[in-house]
């Protein structure tokens, strides 16, 4: 249709002999209907072309002209030419289309179009596209169900709008000043909402060996609710090892973020969070900066080692059990450690299935560098609370710190802590020495008047990336005999205990990577206590991915000094992983710890998002034992389940873990396969069950009421929720399968995906005499908009027929009739379309 009239005239002037093969080629390339229109438009007599050229001079907006006689001769309704006369456009009304802004896909949106096919820049579209709302002077005299319409192109003249009806797509190119920024202050965050939550995690293990058995059970729960941006939580932990049971109430607190001040207020059983002091668990109040409004940082704590067989890892800080998990045989690295504070060491226990235990310490200085102080103020006040069954003093304590940005890459921190018979003051600095090098320094002085001792502690850490291949970090902490942190003064210990404290702790790590030789990492952590006990733990690793395999090796050793590991300190682990296609892989490994050697193989397969399993077999050659194990992890939509079984010559081990969460909200009770965090949402997809959604935390599925929990939304950042359309019934469409939400911390976000149950229908239409409607007749809606054409034997296919929609048929003799459809009584949602007869009556 866009071919120029001059070109058409040239084509028509060719010889008949030359044009016939060309016409046959075109006829084969296009459908009969399209070819008929093309023929009427382009292959017309030259006298008709002269008339077209004359009409084009009269009307410069005429885009195409048709030969009506040719259309009639080919059985095509001439009125169909009116629809194809202009360039393709969207039909009038609201419809769901894809939105692309500056090349970024924003999913499906609900857009409104006028009779000319132009769409409305309403407030809902601007929000979803992350575009600025123009000033009031650009409001158009048009209305939209989603608010005012704006002349966005006039407000931002560089904007380019490309409408693509054939793709159901709106493609926008806008200038940078028309975009909303990604900074938190540039976003409109959601607030409020209320719901109650329960998170649970239950783990059980039973070991049978040499005629004996050992049972271990642990269970953790987190209860709470969100209301008016307040977050209330209570966490408990229960463990039972044989006949020894222990229950610890870790904390209960309330928290709220005040966005204007970029500050968090906490009250209850909390942990002092300070960039200087090791802190303590108190019952009181605390004010600290909201890091999510400044760019968040993780805890920086890394616990790594080698497990000799399937093992339980327990992490304690200040005597309290803060983290426990089961790791498989081989190297492990735990990074998601919920610290009580950033200044106390981590005591790690690794317990294998036989009950044998190994212990090591992760120095606080090794992870303190990851928590670089951010500008702001912290204040805490309250009464020290006891954790566990320890005999502990509980004095009142207050602490305050301030951090200032002195230069672009330099911050300084100072603060003080005061309690009955204890005072401490300190300072610190964080700076970037170069582009990829950071330095952190801390120095704290203490005065324990009850013991009449004074002392100091100093620490420094440096991390650097010397090149694309090489990185390194070092840290050091030293303290004098008289130095005390707050927990040293509250715990009632005998005099010898102070000599077992660390006088110095160091850590260093090096990393080097090469595309040919692989990646090398080594870390060492020497330490010395005041009574002269020296330990030096080294962990090294290497890994490389080849064309058909990935090879890795890890070593762990105590270089010097005494240790609770005894003779089993030295360990080595080598593995080769071979992909087998799809998500299946085979891993072979060999390990040695002390005098124990193991060789084995593991087959693993990820079946889908809800199921994966692992089968293993190994041999201890020097001890003559063969072992096998099987593990399966499943997400049966609303909880997470892990099961494992292992057996050897004279031992068996069973373990299981069940975890997840539940949310009670205004729409009912909804379960989650993952723990629910402090900022979350509830999503609804009509009343459809089993619909899969992609969330920042992982896939979730709707329950029988069509609802699912989005367990975590990034606070003061944009989170994307998307429906996996393949999980929808075939007869169901969505107005918008994608939503982006900017959630304020503590908010409960309710999101709904509007479900459209499309009535696709294949109609066999006849006239009142029972004869099929003529092929090529136009099918129109109640406003005479073209919808489709009648096919062979009166067949009509409509992709979406409204329940009250009026259908007309424009017949070739300039008459019209109204279709009356005999709809089926029942609709199968899994069928792509319905089949129904229809009779076309005179209006």
From TrEMBL:
<dbReference type="InterPro" id="IPR025885">
    <property type="entry name" value="PapC_N"/>
</dbReference>
<keyword id="KW-0472">Membrane</keyword>
<protein>
    <submittedName>
        <fullName>Fimbrial usher protein</fullName>
    </submittedName>
</protein>
<dbReference type="InterPro" id="IPR037224">
    <property type="entry name" value="PapC_N_sf"/>
</dbReference>
<keyword id="KW-1134">Transmembrane beta strand</keyword>
<dbReference type="GO" id="GO:0009297">
    <property type="term" value="P:pilus assembly"/>
</dbReference>
<dbReference type="Pfam" id="PF13954">
    <property type="entry name" value="PapC_N"/>
</dbReference>
<dbReference type="Pfam" id="PF00577">
    <property type="entry name" value="Usher"/>
</dbReference>
<dbReference type="GO" id="GO:0009279">
    <property type="term" value="C:cell outer membrane"/>
</dbReference>
<dbReference type="GO" id="GO:0015473">
    <property type="term" value="F:fimbrial usher porin activity"/>
</dbReference>
<dbReference type="Pfam" id="PF13953">
    <property type="entry name" value="PapC_C"/>
</dbReference>
<keyword id="KW-0732">Signal</keyword>
<feature type="domain" description="PapC N-terminal">
    <location>
        <begin position="66"/>
        <end position="202"/>
    </location>
</feature>
<dbReference type="InterPro" id="IPR000015">
    <property type="entry name" value="Fimb_usher"/>
</dbReference>
<dbReference type="InterPro" id="IPR025949">
    <property type="entry name" value="PapC-like_C"/>
</dbReference>
<dbReference type="InterPro" id="IPR043142">
    <property type="entry name" value="PapC-like_C_sf"/>
</dbReference>
<keyword id="KW-0998">Cell outer membrane</keyword>
<keyword id="KW-0812">Transmembrane</keyword>
<feature type="domain" description="PapC-like C-terminal">
    <location>
        <begin position="762"/>
        <end position="824"/>
    </location>
</feature>
<comment type="similarity">
    <text>Belongs to the fimbrial export usher family.</text>
</comment>
<keyword id="KW-0813">Transport</keyword>
<dbReference type="InterPro" id="IPR042186">
    <property type="entry name" value="FimD_plug_dom"/>
</dbReference>
